[in-house]
Amino acid sequence: MRFGPLPVLAVALACVPAVAIAAEAPDDGPTALFQSESVQSAGSVTVGGSRIGFHAIAGTLVVHAKGWEDTDALDAKTSGDDDAPKGKAEASMFYTAYFKDGAPSASRPVTFLFNGGPGSSTVWLHMGAFGPVRVQTADNSHTPPAPYGMVNNDASLLDASDLVFIDAPGTGFSRIAGPDKDKAFYGVDQDIDAFAQFIGQFLSKYNRWNSPKYLFGESYGTMRGAGLALALQNQSVDLNGVILLSDILNWDLMPDDPQVNPSVDLPYIVALPTYAATAWYHHKLAERPDDLGTLLKQVEGFATGDYAQALMQGNALPEAERQRIAAKMAAFTGLPVNYLLKTNLRIEYGAFQKELLADRGLTTGTLDTRFTGATLDPLSKVAQYDPQGSAIGGAYIAAFNQYVRSTLHYGEGKEFKPDIDVYGSWDYRHQPPGAGKPLIALPNVLPDLAVAMKNNPTMKVMVNGGYFDVSTPYFEGVFEMRHLPVPADLQANVEYSYYQSGHMVYAHLPSLHELHDKVAAFIRRTDGEAR
């Protein structure tokens, strides 16, 4: 199916000429590397049959590195070298803000949204979930090449909140510069600090300090969001709510090759229900119930019961029990018993996607296992690409580039970077509350979120996920929150919503509307409680 040409929009945007807003010089004066800038436009979107007029601002705010000075530069400055770099590294962080016309800022909620990566821009949430326009993509197959269609997004969250989409330093139109700039911004705590600075500046610039405030993070953005809840609180910013989509707050739950990281079994336990959901979707189960929820309750019980106990025994597991567990796994996952025995009952990340439909020469998606694509190498051990990323990535990037330049009137002469390659070089050390220094361990921001909830017991947390997401399995989020170190009365502040979709829940249109309705209700409910 081919979609309509890009210029044909069902949403009324850029109704008035763009208004350039004067650039603001940062406090650093002549030594500043960047200057804030912004441009304004106007438009409308129809949500739930009601027209919402808004004005949009696309621009940048400048934030500074915290505690990261370049030693060589300092040595050069003290030696009198006039050419030495001066000051700290800076980041010019790009954002697009949508403000509902006629709504008083004192009582109007504002939600800050960001994707993750690390190293991803926020084009996905902007153009797929809650912005005023949405790019049209195929539901579970490859979207044909351009021209791509953009339509009025009747699931935009503008009916419940003003929206601020933020690109992380170095991504999108955001840029970094200055001494030791990569070390200054590409890390767990550095990233959290940059976003905290950005939000503080935004609240001042647009006079939104008294507005109900929300964070919406997706994927690695959930780690950022949980850390930000405490970081903002330390700046006297109490949040009304934190909304997590496809969460990963404890990286010890991330899967790895069992040959490389033996004795770490939790990742295989929390991923098993997603494998079962995928096998159910692709009709690979011999006894397939009509209701997915019924199946998942059985698999969750098995995963945390017999399966977990079997894995904990390691090589001491009796052979008869090994056979029984493998047979049960086969019934739930659709994989052959012999294959599961060869894996030592531990399905390596990427292996399930490669093996489930191997008889058809297909690989399932990782972010969304509903998607399939031709297997690149039938002899490979694991999947070599993600069919969902290949299926929809081009549409999102092309549509946003057209939209931001022609409608928001931003980006002339500038390259938009949908993602940057920092995953392998990211500084994953994190200093949780109570620790004297960053820990040399995989990051875990559950303590940050727990302290933020204890300090602000009215703050609510909403957890969302897709059943067909292997990258951040839905049951991983359940497991994390069951271990959130808060008392029983605060555990009630956490609510869960799951959808028959993948990592990008909004890529499935019915799930997008369901997500909108639940998030909008969450904001309205928690906003009312706060006042």
Question: What's the topology here?
Answer:
Layout: E1 19-24, E2 36-47, E3 50-64, H1 71-78, E4 90-100, E5 110-114, H2 123-130, E6 133-135, E7 150-152, E8 162-166, E9 175-177, H3 181-185, H4 188-205, E10 213-218, H5 220-233, E11 241-245, H6 266-281, H7 292-313, H8 319-333, H9 337-342, H10 351-355, E12 362-364, E13 372-374, H11 387-406, H12 446-455, E14 460-466, H13 474-482, H14 488-491, E15 494-499, H15 509-530
Parallel strand pairs: 5-8, 5-10, 10-11, 11-14, 14-15
Antiparallel strand pairs: 1-2, 2-3, 3-4, 4-8, 4-9, 6-7, 12-13
Helix pairs in contact: 2-11, 4-5, 5-12, 6-7, 6-13, 7-8
Short description, anyone?
The protein is of the alpha/beta class and 531 residues long.
Protein model, in words:
InterPro entries: AB_hydrolase_fold, Peptidase_S10. It holds the Pfam family Peptidase_S10. Residues 1-22 form the signal peptide. Keywords: Signal. Strands 1, 2, 3, 4, 5, 8, 9, 10, 11, 14 and 15 form an eleven-stranded mixed beta sheet that branches. The protein is α/β, with parallel strands linked by helices and 531 residues long. The chain has 15 helices and 15 strands. The radius of gyration is 24 Å and the shape is globular.
